[in-house]
Amino acid sequence: MPACHITLSETIPDLAERDITMIRDVVAASLRSRAWRLNRDDVVARVQRASRIHMLGDMELEVFAQFDFGRFFSRDKRAQAISTAVSAALRVDCATWINLAMVGYCRVNASGQIAFSS
User: Fold this and answer.
1) Which of 7, 30, 63, 75 stands 20 to 30 A from 19 (CA)?
2) pTM higher than 0.85 for the full model?
3) Domains detected in the chain
């Protein structure tokens, strides 16, 4: 489950639900590989605020995802694709980082069903 931390400066109003959904779609499409077929429901979005003076863009996206060799060798290209798509859609300056790591994952729902990373 990739997590996308969306940091907005004061120059950007709060994002609409459709904007966050679009970002999740872009991140999922940009992280897909033969081993990982992702869609928006696989991407967690967390929105926070910061001062533009301390940022590299009006909006910054920090994506945390499972390490994969394909992602590793193309991470800059993937980050550029994310920044380009989001910047064009929202008409803002956008900086993107992709952090790859070995992660574990578990989701437990209210009825007690458990799902782990594979």
Assistant:
1) 75
2) yes
3) 3-116 (3.30.429.10)
